[in-house]
Amino acid sequence: MFQASDSSVGVEVSGIGAVGNRILSNSIFSNKELGIDLFGDFEDASGNTANDPATWIQGPTTCRTSMSSARKSASGKTLVKGRLGSAPNRTYTIQLFSNPKGTNEGKKLIGQRTSLTTDSSGKVSFSFSTRKAIALGSTIIATAIDSSALDTSEFSAPKKVVAS
Questions:
Q1: Tens of pLDDT along 17-72?
Q2: How far apart are CA 130 and CA 17, in angstroms?
Q3: Is the pTM of this model over 0.70?
């Protein structure tokens, strides 16, 4: 179920049966709280939902994406590296978004990596090179979409674009 409860949260997905919620290629920004909130029972103080193996099949909390670097090269392209942790041996699409300096949601879709499959421990690393320049100081965030369950993760923590 998608629910826009108020202007605090961009998209909220809640309920143990809330599966198959693809949130693709959207521009989600300027919210007081999370841009995508998977309302679950393993949330930190900020409302971010952690991996919960018990709900990989039953609910919306499917995976956690983290960015390890976002470096702008002399050629102007930005190389983004990150990791995905989720259920073992599942295939995902990672969508990457850029944001103006100081914001942490998904304002502009900059590309995606498809067909990333987690290993037997539920992990996979990824890299992505942008076609266009991303300004230094901007932030990059990601979502992960489970190709079989069709669920989308919350936004990853942001990574600031720095010079190589």
A1: 556 676 776 777 666 666 666 665 555 555 555 544 444 444 444 567 787 899 99
A2: 36
A3: yes
pLDDT of residue 3: 40
Beta bridge mates, 11:
36
Beta strands in 15-107 (DSSP E): 36-39, 64-72, 78-85, 91-99
Do 12 and 61 touch, CB atoms closer than 8 A?
no
Q: Which is nearest to 95 in space by CA: 108, 76, 86, 79? A: 108
Q: Where does residue 68 fall: left (phi above 0), alpha (psi -120 to 50 degrees), or beta otherwise?
A: alpha
Residues 6+ apart with CB under 8 A from 148: 90, 91
Torsion angle, alpha carbons of 108, 112, 116, 118, to 10: -10
Helix, strand, coil content of the chain in percent (nearest 5): 0, 45, 55
Q: What is the DSSP annotation of 127-154?
A: EEE-SS---TT-EEEEEEEETTT--BPP
Report residue 52 CA to chain centroid gap.
16
